[in-house]
Amino acid sequence: MEYDNDEYDKALRDDKWSKAETDYLFNLLREYDLRWSIIADRYEYAGRDRSMEEMKARYYSVCRDLMEHRLPLDMMSGEQLATYNALKYDKELETERKRIASLQMYRSAAEVEQEHQLLAELRRINDSYQSLLEEREDLFQRLDFPQSSGSIAAYQGSQGLAQLAQSLIATDRNKKRKSIAAASAAAEVKPEIVATPAIQRRESVSQPEAKGHHQRDSTVSASGVAAAVAAPKDKKQPKEQPAARVLTKAEEAEYGISHHEKLQPGVFARSQKMNIPKGASYNTKSIPVLTELGIAAALVMPTTKVVAKYEQLCQEIALLLDTRRAVEKIEQETKIFKAQEAMGDSAAGIKRSASVMSDTPKSTKKPKKDK
Questions:
Q1: Per CATH, which fold does 5-105 belong to?
Q2: 229-238 LR contacts (CB < 8 Å, sep 24+)
Q3: What is the pLDDT of residues 196-215, one digit of tens each?
Q4: pLDDT (average), residues 154-182
């Protein structure tokens, strides 16, 4: 966005930013096309040390104030109001987010291992809590069961009691199977404990072996979790690698990450691989449409999003041209039919009269009476 001196004096003044520094910031933004990492690296104004968050906050505040100065909020359309709300920037929240991300990135292996252990313990507590709730609900159902109004004559004999006992045993077996399955699932998610150097030294002292042989498998207990660890004596124990984080689609779009089945070797321009309708008629008829929309035929900045939007626009233009051609054909046929009706084709009238006469019955004889 651009502003003049009058607009700056009325709506864009800030005690922490002078007009000259604001002009310098917007010149950098135009030169480097809002690439904030490059802008923060190139920013040099009168020895001031501005962070990226400060520059972003100044830019977005100028845009919002300028939009509100030119057009009040109650007079904005839905699209303009959405753009105004999208320009909101919270500098403190963004600074805190980057600080937390930096702490997460530079964690040590011990901190990662401790976090895995805490997560496993949390899963175990949740599983035990769910089983406790199920048992409590079962107990309440047994204590508050409704009084039966049916007959118990079927259970007075030995055969009826045997069937009742079999059904109760089957119910208990199903409950035991569910509890065993839950316990095995909880055991699978527990992380393996990696032996520390102190434990390895203690094992080597208590169980000395000849050089070149492997150490015995030993059981290491930590936080109530046991895991068998077997490692060669002359090699270091590899550290457990943290699990790779899976990004969501929104995060992949934010960081510019894309997945391809097959990439073409070598360097090529993204604009050369655009999926645009082919044909000489499309090339000649689409240029006036693009000119009317104010869009250049050659993209200035063919980023991934720009190319996707441009391909969608070309597909819609091709559909528009096909629809226009079909409409023109139908209009031409309609004119021909109207001209034929105005001329009153005699042959068509004779054919219609002949068809009407052919519908009359050929024989008018009365049926003979039965003798």
A1: Arc Repressor Mutant, subunit A (1.10.10)
A2: 229/193, 229/194, 229/195, 231/195, 231/200, 233/204, 233/209, 237/194, 237/195, 237/197, 237/200
A3: 444 444 444 444 444 444 44
A4: 81
